[in-house]
Specification:
Structural class: alpha+beta
Order of helices and strands: HEEEEEEEEEEEEEEEE
Helix content: 10-25%
Number of helices: 1
Largest sheet: 5 strands, antiparallel
Length: 199
């Protein structure tokens, strides 16, 4: 009788655990569906993906017109036909950023970066803040040394360019809460800055 009772409790516990696991998998599947909205590429000739949210960053892939994509997160970058939004496509390998102008989404993606920003101070005499993570993008403003700002996340945009040519092999850029991109070398942050993906 006591043994049968133990088996019943064990069976009940097993059923409860399996039920919880199934519910967890269901919720996880639902969370992933909400977390990574799917969309369709609408670009005759294909859509070029870039290493960073800038048309001036190196290309990393080309999505065919009609391709189905999953979007990790959204941020601001180079305006394309007036649209400043860029999507990070959820994929293995090199970062694949595409202009939102050419993607039809089923739902709004989350913003890139964590919910909490990191304070930063400019360390150079004057620092440009750009529309996208490249000095070839439109400069939005110039920040004096000692200016404080709030940073969301970073991306590596490939070679940085000056008027005289390449300035560095790789350039890390930080995006502010005001959607301005600033070279990491011009900022001192109060803490660790995360990569621009879903926080």
């Amino acid at each position: 009788m006591q043994f049968h009772h133990r088996r019943t409790r064990a069976a009940g516990l097993t059923a409860a655990l399996l039920g919880t696991a199934a519910l967890s998998l269901t919720l996880t599947g639902q969370a992933e569906a909400r977390t990574f909205p799917h969309g369709t590429v609408r670009a005759d000739g294909g859509l070029v993906a870039h290493q960073a949210p800038s048309t001036h960053a190196p290309s990393t892939h080309t999505f065919q017109d009609g391709a189905e994509v999953a979007v990790d997160c959204a941020t601001k970058g180079t305006r394309v036909s007036g649209n400043p939004d860029w999507y990070l496509i959820s994929a293995e390998g090199d970062a694949k950023w595409v202009s939102a102008r050419y993607v039809d989404l089923e739902a709004e993606p989350r913003h890139c970066g964590p919910d909490l920003s990191v304070a930063a101070t400019t360390t150079t005499k004057s620092t440009g803040a750009y529309e996208g993570p490249s000095t070839a993008d439109r400069r939005q403003t110039t920040l004096a040394k000692g200016t404080t700002t709030e940073i969301l996340c970073y991306t590596d945009s490939g070679p940085a360019y000056t008027d005289s040519g390449p300035a560095a092999k790789t350039s890390r850029w930080l995006v502010t809460t005001e959607a301005q991109w600033i070279p990491a070398t011009a900022l001192k942050t109060s803490g660790e800055v995360e990569f621009c993906q879903q926080g």
